[in-house]
Amino acid sequence: MITNEKVWRPDNLHDAWILSSKLSDQCCFVSGGTWLRTQWEAGTKEMAPHLISLDKVPEVKEDISLKGQLGQEEVVIGASTTLAEMITNPTLNEKAPVLVKACKNIAGPSIRNQGTIGGNILSCVGDAIPALIVLNAKLMWFNGDELVYQSIEEWLLNQDEVRDILVSIHIPTDKSKGEHYEFAFYTKVGRRESFIPSLVTVAGTGCYRKGEGIFSHVSLSVGGGNVVPIRLPNTEVKIINNEYSSELLYNVLRQVQQDYKPIDDAFGSAAYKRKVAGNLIVSELYRIGGSNHALE
To answer: Is the dihedral of CA 38, 42, 45, 51 positive or negative?
Structure first.
């Protein structure tokens, strides 16, 4: 049994896994460390005696890249990629601008220069998660034997028992939407612009056929505060293949408020957060369809 306190720096996934297995609950993985440091300083999480740094593991540090064949491409992001690197990356700005916008809205420059996308995900309440949900992102993990994929939605339902190493994030680039107008939005509401937990965060993607006023391929997600972000499939059903109208907006507002179940906290009531989430999504739909299709 290893007893001396230490920061370990393995140079491959297998060694990192072996270390974590030997040290068990006496260790934790660290990359940027911004979220962990916040918890340590606030006294909400005890600092582990052993830290396993992943800064020398090449798979976790993989550069953002576009991989696969035409029509089946995906953007691959190493889990140790900093939020600042995400913001300035040309591939992400072209293929996943909604994720770039999410990263721009996290904390301030000093945190974004050090904090990583992997850490934001592993917090389970990170402001990048709603954007990743609507992008149908998959997470690649190393479980000690092999690399396995899991959708971010599936992981969020079972995230209490994380022992695997998050290696990378994979975002498909969907080419099946045709020539219709594609939209993406991300909005974060907090008590001030930065360095404050969000009250409500919403994200959405989809297509809008301007000539017909019809929505399709819609994905919606909501999170914020200490609530694990969720997708809104029932709300999506209210929108997909339906024509833009005042009735549609009303139905969406009512459905969001039924499906989103935040909690009261010191910054806002659950009822207020539900109302904000509904209003944010409806305002985005109005922005997309209102100028092209008069409300009756």
So the answer is: positive
pTM score over 0.85: yes
Residue 145 to residue 84: CA distance in whole angstroms: 32
Would you report the helix, strand and coil content of the chain in percent, each value rounded to 5?
35, 25, 35
Q: Identify residue 292 by its one-letter amino acid code.
A: N
Between CA 185 and CA 285 the distance in angstroms is: 10
Phi, psi of 114 (to 5 degrees): -115, -40
Of the candidates 32, 35, 38, 194, the residue with the CA atom closest to the CA atom of residue 105: 194
Cα–Cα distance measured from residue 65 to residue 285, given in angstroms and rounded to the nearest whole number = 31
Position 36: which residue type? L
In the structure encoding, which two tokens stand for residue 9, read together?
């720096």
- Please name each of the domains of the chain with its CATH number: 6-53 (3.30.43.10), 65-172 (3.30.465.10), 181-289 (3.30.390.50)
Three-state SS letters, 149-206: EEEHHHHHHCCCCCCCEEEEEEEECCCCCCCCEEEEEEEEECCCCCCCCCCEEEEEEE
Walking along the chain (296 residues) 10 residues at a time, the average pLDDT comes out as 76 95 93 89 90 95 86 91 97 96 93 95 95 97 95 88 88 68 90 70 94 94 94 98 96 97 90 96 95 51
Residue 28: both structure tokens together? 């934790």
Structure-block tokens of residue 1? 């049994």
Strands lying side by side in the sheet with 6-8? 6-8, 50-53, 27-30
Query: How confident is the model at residue 35, as a pLDDT?
Result: 87
- In 91-146 the beta strands, taken as DSSP E runs, fall at 138-142
